[in-house]
Amino acid sequence: MDLSTYIRDIPNFPKSGVVFKDITPLLKDPKALTLATESLLDFITDAKVDKVVGVDSRGFIFAPLLAQKIGAGFVPVRKSGKLPFDTLSESYDLEYGAETLHIHSDAIEKGDKVLVHDDVLATGGTAKAVCQLVERLGGEVVQCNFLIQLTFLNGADKLKGYPIRSLLQY
């Protein structure tokens, strides 16, 4: 099964000039969803993972599934104003603006091995900010997993030193 056939391009979203990679066709097909989840699980190395961090909002789809399958905890990283407890924040630039992400101050314990998951690696700003949050809390990022990598945006350059895996590359 070719998972790329389940990714829909939406031109000029969320702003003019951006081609949004819509994963909802993949999510609504049970076989594609299962294959994507199993393929993402295959990326996880033999390294022990204590927490899987999912990035707001589409990273929340696969990250809890991965965490459950490998016996790890799930940690949400959210946009401003969405987490109810004390948080740490990190601001960053993305391909169409700027954003700030937050993580609960008690979400990662010193020495935790962390897998970071998001749906798309674009310019790398989001993933880098998440890795910085994890490290500020004393965690160690063992891998960054993505459903899609937009290689032409060179986001992997911002993640040098972190193992990166992605199912689909554009």
UniProtKB/TrEMBL annotation:
Pathway(s) this gene product operates in, as recorded in its UniProt entry: Purine metabolism; AMP biosynthesis via salvage pathway; AMP from adenine: step 1/1
Keyword GTP-binding carried by entry: no
Residue ranges constituting the Phosphoribosyltransferase domain according to the UniProt record: 42-148
InterPro entries: Ade_phspho_trans, PRTase-like, PRTase_dom, UPRTase/APRTase
GO BP annotations, alphabetical order: adenine salvage; AMP salvage; purine ribonucleoside salvage
Alphabetized Gene3D superfamilies for the sequence: 3.40.50.2020
Pfam families documented for this protein: Pribosyltran
Enzyme class: transferase
Molecular function GO terms recorded: adenine binding; adenine phosphoribosyltransferase activity; AMP binding
Family the entry assigns: Belongs to the purine/pyrimidine phosphoribosyltransferase family.
Protein name: Adenine phosphoribosyltransferase
